[in-house]
Amino acid sequence: MKIESLPSKIYSSIFLQDGAVDLRKATIDLILREAHLDVERSHPQFSAQCHPLGFFACRWLLEERHTLRLHLWSKDFTWAQEPGWEIHDHLFSFQ
Question: Is the peptide bond before 44 cis (omega within 30 degrees of 0)?
């Protein structure tokens, strides 16, 4: 897999369990970069939303049909649906 972008670099590091990348720093850099870029200059396959369960969801579509997803929670987020319906299941497993 070619590492051409920061989302791809983070994904590869997690997938390959490669400790060479400081995931904390790379993730912070990625979020800061996206926060400071306008839509036209942002990663072309980036999307973000305020999820109804009360977290902020970021998603980067990567080459080879892979996706990097980042979910951020804060007690300050106020957009959670009522009732919460927090208990749910996924059709897939993830780490």
Answer: no
